[in-house]
Design goal:
By secondary structure, the protein is α+β, with helices and mostly antiparallel strands. 18% of the residues lie in helices and 30% in strands. It folds into 3 domains: 134-461, Rossmann fold, CATH 3.40.50; 467-563, Immunoglobulin-like, CATH 2.60.40.10; 572-654, Macroglobulin (MG2) domain (Immunoglobulin-like, Sandwich). The strands form 8 sheets. The protein has a 7-stranded parallel sheet, sandwiched between helices. A 4-stranded antiparallel sheet has the order 2-3-1-4, sandwiched between helices.
Length: 655
């Protein structure tokens, strides 16, 4: 897709175009003086969810959040035959439509007006479409796929999810629930009728739509490009096509006039991003990019030098969206085979995630735009499937299309699910994890940036940032506490290194708990009997996918303490036999009488399974312990106490 943008600061003044050519303008104001709104009452202009996002990530309310001063807008509208189109509080400007030269002169004379700038000719309708979306669509028939062991049966879309291990996020319950994703595009034709969105429609996941071009609340009539992009995220047809965040909530905004290419579309884009922010959106996905304009604005088309992340109106708006705490995902552009060659804006913005296109084998699409940005940023940031990407078409057929247009929403959906699992972290922390999980993160290039993100690796990176642990010693027992996020299919491996060792040795395992990926805390008691004095270090390996090979585990934290007294003794405990079938026998040897010996049997979750109390005379005694008949096979622990003091912990396997 070829889209274009012009720098707001350099748009030509309205007087340079004849009235016959230019009827739409941007009016930029100098300030927000005499504003009835205040920074201390943001609820008057932001949703509570938007305010909560700012509070969560310590983002202050500032002047860009304030609405434009109403009397400024009123003065412009009342100056003559003027129609208000859209307004941007971030840019402190409005777009208007007028052919009234006297009104334009009057508006320019207002002391609070900074500039009046021609931004587009007469409204679209008398122009022929320039086919700027045409290169994206190459439909082909697809066959249904068989059942899978994953939560979703993806059908033909499995490969474009699996290349990122995206099914891992879905399998642990991260499918976009309670997240809001806003899409900015050129139209969502047939989104109300195609079967891919039955679930989203029936469950009320489409929260709102708006057309910033036609100024109405309907986006079903225009081009299908946005609907096709939407399908890579929200489709839910089991066995045929499932998107990357099918349980998310959505806003669908048309900001693009597919028939033309004028700077006004950039103003629309910023206005759309603002509305997503104000509504409390979390993620923006936009498969639009700009570099050239139609006549009479060709003189103001961008140069590569403008792709520096700070010049164009779209890049400024995209970075402001990121500053408000949203994760902004942008298509890098389809200019790889064209004379332009490079990324388009706003993918050059320094705080967005720009996405290039690969096929399901990881080979880059020749059309995918090249980086870097003109100021040397690594662009694209990452890559996703945009070559023969599976999409929904308006006629209810499922086929494939090419374009970074589809790589972008594929990645936006997975980014949404990943962020769902780590709401404590801000948008830039999520972007960094995606970059660092890329297939070529250590040798990023100008085609796919940091590479193809791996959602397992990104999860482990975030877990390492999130997890905490501590250890303390009392009465020759080390108490290791840690906090992480998990589900029951995950586990922790606890390793220890003492002052007498040069490497870590596994000493225990702890199974995860729960069906929802969320924060949990655990404790492990380590018997230090006969452990030498000095530094003792524990490290925790979290295994996030016990059913898989390859990347599925990493160390999430370490904790150290110092044993400064002797725990030497002659007590010994032996498990007979090990593994155990029904009856566990413990051979306990002590050098003195133990009048209050307690033997407790625990599972890996720390639940008490069986208990025995005896008076242990000096010497060796065998203690048979019948295990519950229905006790499931697995790993268990026997802990022996001298009163309240643990003097031995033994691991055994129940067959």
């Amino acid at each position: 897709m070829k889209k274009i943008l012009v720098c707001f600061a350099t748009l030509v003044a309205f007087a340079q175009f004849s009235e016959a050519q230019t009827t739409r303008y941007i009016v930029k104001f100098k300030d927000k003086g005499s504003n009835p709104y205040s920074l201390t009452n943001p609820a008057a202009y932001l949703s509570q969810r938007s305010i909560d996002r700012r509070n969560r990530y310590s983002i202050g309310i500032d002047s860009t959040d304030l609405p434009i001063t109403p009397r400024y807008i009123d003065s412009v509208i009342l100056s003559g035959s003027v129609t208000l189109l859209n307004k941007s509080k971030w840019l402190n400007s409005i777009s208007i439509k007028t052919s009234d030269a006297a009104a334009l002169a009057k508006i320019s004379s207002f002391p609070f007006v900074q500039s009046v700038t021609g931004i587009a000719p007469r409204i679209a309708g008398s122009f022929s479409p320039n086919h700027k979306f045409e290169t994206d669509e190459q439909p082909s028939a697809l066959k249904e796929a068989g059942l899978t062991s994953d939560f979703y049966n993806y059908g033909s879309s499995f490969a474009q999810v699996h290349i990122h291990n995206g099914e891992f996020l879905h399998n642990i319950g991260l499918r976009g629930q309670n997240m809001i994703l806003g899409m900015l595009d050129g139209g969502f034709n047939s989104y109300l009728t195609v079967s891919a969105f039955d679930s989203a429609r029936n469950n009320g996941q489409i929260l709102g739509v708006y057309d910033f071009v036609a100024k109405d609340s309907s986006v079903n009539e225009d081009i299908p490009h946005g609907m096709e992009c939407f399908s890579t995220i929200a489709a839910n047809i089991p066995g045929q096509f499932v998107g990357t965040a099918p349980k998310a909530n959505f806003y669908l905004f048309r900001t693009e006039d597919a028939a033309t290419e004028y700077p006004i579309e950039e103003h629309n884009w910023v206005c759309g991003a603002e509305r997503i922010d104000s509504a409390g959106g979390d993620v923006i996905s936009s498969s639009l990019g700009y570099n050239n304009f139609d006549a009479p604005f060709t003189a103001y088309s961008h140069t590569y030098a403008d792709m520096n992340g700070n010049t164009t109106m779209a890049a400024i708006g995209a970075d402001l969206a990121a500053k408000k705490g949203m994760l902004v995902v942008i298509a890098a552009g389809n200019e790889g085979n064209s004379a332009w060659h490079y990324i388009t804006t706003p993918s050059d913005a320094d705080s967005v995630l720009a996405v290039g296109a690969v096929n399901t084998s990881g080979a880059v699409g020749s059309f995918s735009s090249y980086g870097p940005s003109s100021d040397g940023q690594i662009k694209p940031d990452v890559a996703a499937v945009g070559v023969a990407a599976v999409v929904q078409f308006p006629n209810n057929a499922i086929g494939t299309s090419n374009g970074t247009s589809f790589a972008c929403p594929n990645m936006a959906g997975l980014s949404t699910c990943l962020w769902q699992g780590f709401p404590e972290f801000n948008n830039m922390k999520i972007i960094n994890a995606l970059r660092q999980s890329g297939s070529i993160a250590s040798s990023a290039d100008n085609r796919i940036g940091y590479g193809i993100p791996d959602m397992k690796k990104a999860t482990l990176i975030l877990l390492q940032d999130f997890a905490t642990s501590s250890v303390s010693i009392s009465n020759c027992t080390a108490t290791l506490n840690w906090t992480s996020k998990d589900v029951s299919s995950m586990k922790y491996v606890i390793e220890r290194m003492t002052s007498a060792q040069n490497s870590f040795i596994k000493i225990a395992e702890q199974k995860g708990t729960g069906n929802t990926f969320s924060t949990r805390s655990y404790q492990f008691l380590d018997d230090l009997q006969n452990v030498p004095t000095g530094t003792i270090t524990y490290r925790i390996l979290q295994v996030i996918d016990t059913s898989a090979t390859g990347l599925n585990a990493d160390y999430i934290d370490t904790a150290s303490t110092i044993l400064n007294f002797s725990c030497a003794g002659t007590e010994s405990v032996v498990v007979i036999p090990n593994p155990v079938i029904n009856t566990l026998t413990l051979k306990v040897s002590t050098s003195e009488n133990v009048p209050n010996l307690i033997i407790n049997i625990y599972n890996t979750a720390g639940q008490l399974i069986a208990s025995l109390k005896k008076d242990q005379p000096q010497g060796t005694i065998f203690y048979p312990i019948a295990l519950p008949l229905k006790l499931p096979p697995g790993k268990y622990y026997a802990k022996l106490y001298n009163g309240t003091k643990v003097f031995a912990t033994k691991e055994f396997i129940k067959l």
